[in-house]
Amino acid sequence: MGDQFIRTRMLIGDEPLERLRNARVAVFGVGGVGGYAVEALARSGVGTLHLYDDDTVSESNLNRQLAALHSTLGQPKAEVMVRRVQDINPHCQAEAFRTFYLPQNADTVDLAQYDYVVDCIDTVTAKLELVTRCNALQVKIISAMGTGNKFDPSALAATDISKTQGCPLARVVRKELRKRGIPHHKVVFSPEQPRSAGEGDETPPPGRRSIPASAMWVPAAAGLLLAQAVILELAGCGG
Fold first, then answer.
1. Residues 52, 55, 58, CA angle at the centre, nearest 5°?
2. What is the pLDDT of residues 142-168, one digit of tens each?
3. Each residue of 62-120: pLDDT tens digit?
4. What angle do CA 37, 30, 105 make, to 5 degrees?
5. What is the largest CA-CA distance in the chain?
6. What SS3 state is found at 206?
7. Closest by alpha carbon to 133, among 115, 159, 107?
8. First to last CA, the chain
9. Which has the least CB within 10 A, 15, 53, 139, 217?
């Protein structure tokens, strides 16, 4: 039988790949950013992936999200991505949780079981709750900042939130985390100023006041940067 991870093994070695196989990672939000993070984690050999998302695939997702195909319209994104992960790596223990993570239901999620949490949540209150709980449990976490209304994927970077500038979401999260005694937190952000977006007919999801404009390349690049940081750290290759 062949080794589907042979190219990764050649790059990072046997022991780091084994660490990835034994790792448990949760991804919250599997849309434009989170879907690409899941893809990279699965293709890199992460052994357990738990995907949290209560949204279903809609037509407006087709321009950028891995879960979105005409054949998957109306289906739960987390379940679609679990099927994709299992097709990529049948040995990965992938599970979907149809959960819209909020402070009100946060107690139902056992974050302590994870080696790393990837936060691709859109709403500020949920994002802050997830970061605060992971920090208290000493569970590693990385968060995506704003990718909507942005055009330049080369401006994205993985860094500490204390070093962010120019991103409205990062500004709010940075301020609120400081209030909670959390001055440092790993994020992927872009200093690119958001562009003005035209009006659309789509209804904003709960907790959002508007729908941002978005093409494929910026959220996809952000998701890959999130996954890179997680993979390198879990494998012990830096990050």
1. 140
2. 999 999 999 999 999 999 999 999 999
3. 999 999 999 999 999 999 999 999 999 999 999 999 999 999 999 999 999 999 999 99
4. 125
5. 54
6. coil
7. 107
8. 32
9. 15
| Residue 160 burial (CB count, 10 A) | 12
Beta bridge partners of 119: 28, 143
Do 223 and 35 meet the contact criterion of CB atoms below 8 Å apart? Answer: yes
For residue 159, how many other CB atoms are within 10 A of its CB?
A: 14
Which amino acid appears at position 47 of this protein?
Answer: G
- pTM, whole model, 2 decimals? 0.93
Angle between helices 168-179 and 124-137 (to 10 degrees): 50
H-helix or E-strand spanning residue 28: strand 24-28
The tokens for 54 are 């209560």
